[in-house]
Design a protein that fits this description.
This protein is an all-alpha fold and 66 residues long. The chain folds into 2 domains: 34 residues, no CATH class; 32 residues, no CATH class. The protein has 3 helices and no strands.
Length: 66
């Protein structure tokens, strides 16, 4: 197995990814999008219940800005 990192924000990266996706029906390639470390950490925290709860938007903004 080989992992290739493609910068999807660049024109060449978008074109390469589009080309590779054209092989998605084949068995020799699989394209998996994995979240970055910050997102993984946020997902773990949410699963553990470490979230900010608020009654409404005003309450949320007050808690976030505190």
């Amino acid at each position: 197995m080989t992992t290739v990192v493609i910068d999807e924000k660049t024109t060449k990266g978008k074109k390469l990814l589009e080309f590779l996706k054209s092989f998605s029906d084949e068995k020799f390639i699989s394209i998996e999008k994995e979240p970055n470390e910050t997102t993984k950490k946020a997902i773990r925290a949410a699963k553990e219940g470490k979230v900010t709860r608020a009654k409404n938007l005003v309450d949320l903004m007050e808690k976030l800005n505190a």
